[in-house]
């Protein structure tokens, strides 16, 4: 198994994407620690993993609370001996409007929240990974330099900001053997509401792909597990495009 004896911490582990990654990591032998603010969602994912024979533990952690994040990851390392994989899937507040229609305060607050939680959780993991001289920091979303979609509001700007943060982490942490990789996505249609309002978004993502299909949650988990494993050890300081060609990062 690719991730045998590895420890993975997933912030937002009760969500669709977090659950997909957790399941894939556990299937490859990792011991996964799921955090979030809704115990029932976390336990649903953990139960699914345990039923399949994997190892999963949950904890209610506010990823905007630096003390809570640090206390949790310290406890994980004390229990397992290391933290090998960390990913924060806490979604920023999305405001899908033309920039001219968004209030300055709302725009700045949403971007700041996304950057703050990413900085807190990455600092916490990096503190232990530097001591280990190893580890993988995964990011999700990425920067699409060819974006031509209007009315994305703060969404792509926020992902661009986090990608810039990831690049800086890559420069600073590479000397310690730590890899940093972003999974570039154009949207995972499995996670969209099954409503007429979202039908167009689903179709546009599929149409943008040269293969005329969209990445699934299973695809996300499988790629994440490979990238985080030693088989992906040559991949760092970059984005891995999981958009089925819809994005051009």
UniProtKB/TrEMBL annotation:
GO terms for molecular function: oxidoreductase activity. InterPro entries: NAD(P)-bd_dom_sf, SDR_DHRS6-like, SDR_fam. SUPFAM superfamilies: NAD(P)-binding Rossmann-fold domains. The keyword rRNA processing does not apply. It comes from the Bacteria. Keywords: Oxidoreductase. Belongs to the short-chain dehydrogenases/reductases (SDR) family. PANTHER family: DIHYDROANTICAPSIN 7-DEHYDROGENASE (PTHR43477). This is NAD(P)-dependent dehydrogenase, short-chain alcohol dehydrogenase family. It comes from Kibdelosporangium aridum.
């Amino acid at each position: 198994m690719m991730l045998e004896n590895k420890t993975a911490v997933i912030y937002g582990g009760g969500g669709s994407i977090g659950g997909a990654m957790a399941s894939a990591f556990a299937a490859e032998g990792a011991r996964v620690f799921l955090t979030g603010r809704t115990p029932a969602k976390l336990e649903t994912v953990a139960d699914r993993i345990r039923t399949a024979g994997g190892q999963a533990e949950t904890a209610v952690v506010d990823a905007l609370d630096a003390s809570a994040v640090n206390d949790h990851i310290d406890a994980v390392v004390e229990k397992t001996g290391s933290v090998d994989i960390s990913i924060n899937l806490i979604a920023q507040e999305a405001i899908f409007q033309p920039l001219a229609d968004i209030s300055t305060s709302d725009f700045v607050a949403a971007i700041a929240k996304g950057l703050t939680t990413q900085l807190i959780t990455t600092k916490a993991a990096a503190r232990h990974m530097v001591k280990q001289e190893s580890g993988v920091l995964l990011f999700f979303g990425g920067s699409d330099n060819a974006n031509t979609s209007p009315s994305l509001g703060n969404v792509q700007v926020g992902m661009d900001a986090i990608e810039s943060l990831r690049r800086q982490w890559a420069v600073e942490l590479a000397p310690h053997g730590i890899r940093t990789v972003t999974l570039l996505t154009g949207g995972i249609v499995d996670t969209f509401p099954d409503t007429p309002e979202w039908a167009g978004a689903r179709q546009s993502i599929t149409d943008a792909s040269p293969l005329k299909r969209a990445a699934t949650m299973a695809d996300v988990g499988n790629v994440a597990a490979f990238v985080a494993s030693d088989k992906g050890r040559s991949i760092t300081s970059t984005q891995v495009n999981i958009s089925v060609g819809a994005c051009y990062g």
